[in-house]
Design brief:
By secondary structure, the chain is of the alpha+beta class. The protein has five helices and five strands, in the order ααβααββββα. It is globular. The termini are far apart.
Amino acid sequence: MNDRQPPPPSSSSSSPSPDPENILAILSDKPSLAILKLLDRKEYSIQQIASNLNLPVSSTYRKVNKLEHLHILKKAKIVRKDDGTDESFYTSRIDEIQISFKNNKMTCRVKNKEYSPDRIVRLWQGFK
């Protein structure tokens, strides 16, 4: 069993280099790009994303899941609704994407957004 702990988030870091073809596919897909734009510094549920962008909920689930799998989006929070079900809210985790083609090789670099303190810490700081 591996007892190593993951490194703490840095203030600004790069994700492992994703496959440039996957990133290009996302950036050239209008609904996926619209989702990225909508979630920049905002948090929305799948239903809110679908409603805001006039997309089918099933397609929105698939696209958000793919973006989350590629570490482009992240779950910002999970809220328990009155009916006892959980609703996940998503946000963008990227600040910048760089794609380059040099010496017949395509590379991709994804720069993460700066790490921010836990939401509870920020809430308590507001009471000072």
